[in-house]
Amino acid sequence: MTRSFPFLMLASIALQGCMFSPGQHLSTSDITRQGASESSRVELIPITPKLIAMDRATHKRAALPAELLSAPAEYRIGNNDVLYITVWDHPELTAPSGAQQQIDANGRLVRSDGTLYYPYIKEVQAAGKTIQQLRSDIASRLSAFIADPQVDVAVLRFASQKVVVSGAVSKAGPQPISTNPLSLVEALGSAGIDPLNADLSGVLLTRGERVYPLNLDALNQQDSELQNVYLKGGDQLYLPYNDNKRIYVMGEVNQPRALTFKTATMNLSDVLGSVGGLSQTTSNGNAVYVIRGVENLDVEPAKIYQLQAESPTAMALATHFDVRPQDIVYVGPANVTRWNRFISQLVPSAAILGAGASAAKNLNDASSNK
To answer: How far apart are the C-alpha atoms of 309 and 316, rounded to whole Å?
Structure first.
């Protein structure tokens, strides 16, 4: 019985090595190649120039809606705006509170009904008019009391038209629309974008009942039209956070972790570079996979894209292959790595085996001496 103990231990270790191969390993023996039947749950797709070209054609950048690119309209006065009305050579009309007072003290508020009061002509409808239209109206009505009145109108405080900016910005809140048109880029610039936590590709512009998704990262492109998007009173801008834009990098890389990104896309080369690249001693260059799930696995197979990184052209392909949020990038170990890990787990067991064999020998010697 004591002689059979070492053999039992050796058999146990061998079984453990067969059943529990240490380290992660993605076996492609059960994965169906591209073009398989619809019943397959997983589809293995090599990353090739043709695949990249097809993906680029499918996700071609859409043009902005024409209504967002219309020229900004001339400013129209609204309720709660404060105006400064000048009648040249008539200081009693221009500054009734006295020239020594602050200019705001002589401002004229556009009331909630859209009117303001002015001497001689009394109630004046101001809301809805351009500055030029209001100036002409006041001058025309004053001409009944003053010969050839010279009138000028300026807005002291813009309060009737506002844009609200919220989300991943430093200064969320309303921004006024003034006589200088407010562009989308200027509004976000004034609000201060959070560079670490913002999702630049997911800007939402709400205008009335419609929501426009915009990709702010497109400003890096030479033909971008975002510079020509101007905002209107009542618009809402929301810049989302990038919490859900993660890529999980696992396996034989130098710094496995979850990556977040704030742009519309991130290519596979950038992903691998962000984690320090493939481990030179343990990775299998032909086992670089991008695992992409689907919402309904019973209907559509999940896709696993394979990059043969040992090929000289592989990194050029990786630069043009875009990963998506929630993708898993997995780098498999080399065969020698899996063997070394098996050996590293075998050594402690071998020590136990040696101790057992030594104990068995001592028992045999003791029995012989009796």
So the answer is: 10
